[in-house]
Amino acid sequence: MERAEGASSGGGEGARYVLKPAPLNNEDIIFCVDVDAESLVEMKTTGADGKPVTRLDAIKQAILLFVNAKLAINPDHRFAFATLSKSVSWLRKEFSSNVESAISALRVLVATSPPSGQADITNLFRLAAHEAKKSHAQDRILRVILIYCRSSVKPQFQSPVNQKLFTMDVMYLHDKPGPDNCPQEVYDALVETLEHVSEHEGYIYENGKGLARVLFRHMSVLLAHPQQRCSQEYMDAVIPKPLTKKAPITESGNGKGRSPVSSQ
Amino acid sequence: MSSDFPPYISTQLHYLLNHFPDKLKIENVWSGSKHYSVTLDRFTLVIPYCLDTIKWDIIYNLEFPLAAPDVIFGPDDEDFHRFLMMPGEGDRDSRSRAEFAMSDWNNKDPTRLLALIKELRDQYAAYQRWRAGEIDDDRLKFEISTIMTREGIEMQIISGADKTEEVKFGVPLMHMNINKLVSACPWRHPQKIYLQVIYPVARKYASAPSAPRLKLMSPPELKALFSIDDVKLPSWLDGMCMAEYLPNLEESLGKQVFEAVTLIDFRRSFIEALAPLFGRPLEADPVFCRKATFLATSGPFAFLVYFLLSTQFPKQQPVLMLQSTQHFQSQGVPIKSALLSDYPWSPRWEVSQMAERIFEFLVDEALNFKRYCNESQLQH
């Protein structure tokens, strides 16, 4: 059986996990949140008090989950925040490893209205490339996590000078497909963007059923450190593992369009 | 910060901080000028010396940019000035030590500040050696003479309790390059272990000289590999001297460091043994193998599992922690379990068995944790 390359990107399919000695850089992570009117669509899950929860509410919670967990893994990772309406602008541009800083940034994250119409992410790549150079100078790597909410509007960008300076992940929340929207096309456009731009393996998850706990689970997979990632397909096949007695080898995928296999 | 210094100062300061052999810190920055009070020209430099730090104020003057900065030493070192005014040893042109250090000043040369600080620090070490040599204590004189050939020793006169004088020695141990032993070592500076030895200065007609106080010291980064708190120092026998004490200590320490290095790969194999049961880790420490984090489920409940491995693993079992992805406290903090370290364990098991036993434990513990999370949420 071949030995897999557990610690390098893109390797490790189908063979034993290996943790090779290799440098692991601290991350600078930019959350870019789509604050278009569609972020106010309600999730299927209601809050603990029975009140409705919008996509934006669930996204904020998911980001806090991510930040808390990431800092528990390593307190030296840092976060900054940007928003996307018609285009991308900074919400909080100073990177911080302080949870309170994330909490206060999210507090001022509000949806725009009316609907933006377009979603130009050219500036996202520009500012990410700029920040990536600064991060590299400090021995860090840069990651962008784009959280997108529109079911009919594809993101556009002027083709950047592509240097693959940062990793990109996408979380896509959308309505059920119907005659008046095209979430599959939007999804495909997001996949293409990610592959065009991302330095290490980028991950993308879509959430069309409006379940908050599924959003949280996917955000947790995005915790995976880019320098230790394998392909998304393989990742979705091996995690999360169910903790049940006499663990069987189950396949529970929820990634690119594959329907989940069984009885869970 | 440095963007507020004029370029000629910030260039020299950056060069100093990036190239000085030890880690320097800046504590205070301020301006001496009434007119240009926004532009900075002064700072306090914190310099490692003899296992502690000394603080010097570096005083440039915006109104005289070509002049070398003044250096103001600590309040306990008034004599250092006098020492610097003395002629240097072996100096043919009989300049004072201070003049020698300040010569060749050029504010356009980025390296001059580093050269100045390095020279002054060397002079400071010579000054402390000179002061120690002046002390009238036979044992001390003997100790100094026998260890002076050891590379890298620094000494410092300090005041102990009751304002008595004490002499502190910072003795680097083991000339092994610890950094080289660690694959993919992330340490920028060589990690060294030191022995701090503090001798009280003997008072005349005092009874038998007391043993010196001994303490092992190391930079905090080394903790990822090896904890000096776990080392039991050999006892200092009556009438011993450092030349006798040090070799035993070094041999014992060398063995412990080598063992700590082999334990890295044992932790590595344990983390790898977790993967078949817990899935691929989201992140695992690839250099020291002290941590690994996994995502798991118990029914529809998804949660994170953190494994923390101490440098004493496998003697000390891993500490586990669970964190919900679905239950949150106030301020959006996802609910965590307590640190779990009380579960069946034997350091003699194979790593695959360790992994299986932990898995079995967590199958049950996950259910407890889920219940705890649900109850905590209801209480909101």
Automatic annotation (TrEMBL), chain A:
Subcellular location: Cytoplasm; Nucleus
Source organism, top-level taxon: Eukaryota
InterPro entries listed in its UniProt record: BABAM1, vWFA_dom_sf
Major localization listed first in the record, in broad terms: cytoplasm
Region (Disordered) residue spans: 245-264
GO biological process: cell division; chromatin organization; DNA repair; positive regulation of DNA repair
Keywords assigned by UniProt, alphabetized: Cell cycle, Cell division, Chromatin regulator, Cytoplasm, DNA damage, DNA repair, Mitosis, Nucleus, Ubl conjugation pathway
GO cellular component: BRISC complex; cytoplasm
Family: Belongs to the BABAM1 family.
The name this protein goes by in its record: BRISC and BRCA1-A complex member 1
Organism of derivation: Rubroshorea leprosula
Automatic annotation (TrEMBL), chain B:
Keywords linked to the UniProt accession: Apoptosis, Cell cycle, Cell division, Chromatin regulator, Cytoplasm, DNA damage, DNA repair, Mitosis, Nucleus, Repeat, Ubl conjugation pathway
Compartments in which it is found: Cytoplasm; Nucleus
InterPro entries: BRE (IPR010358)
One Gene Ontology cellular component: cytoplasm
GO BP annotation list: cell division; chromatin organization; double-strand break repair
UniProt-listed Pfam families: BRE
PANTHER family noted in UniProt: BRISC AND BRCA1-A COMPLEX MEMBER 2 (PTHR15189:SF7)
Family under the similarity heading: Belongs to the BABAM2 family.
The name this protein goes by in its record: BRISC and BRCA1-A complex member 2
